[in-house]
Specification:
The chain has 66 residues and is an all-alpha fold. It has helices spanning 11-35, 38-64. Helices cover 79% and strands 0% of the residues.
């Protein structure tokens, strides 16, 4: 899953796209956990954490008007 989101030049659109990416990965992580797939969980964990950090950073930029 390395596809990029096309969010144009709007900071709010970027924040929304990053949030969607985070939620998608979170759903995949929850599915892997419910299926008992430890391998998939280990693969997704760093991607989920990175997506979470990127989304939160974008959210801060949007809310602070930068």
């Amino acid at each position: 899953m390395t596809r990029e989101f096309d969010h144009g030049h709007e900071p709010r659109a970027e924040e929304i796209a990053l949030h969607q990416r985070f939620l998608t990965l979170k759903g995949q992580m929850e599915a892997a956990q419910s299926e008992g797939s430890e391998t998939e969980g280990r693969r997704l964990r760093p991607l989920l954490e990175r997506a979470r950090k990127r989304w939160l950073a974008a959210n801060l930029r949007v809310t602070r008007g930068r």
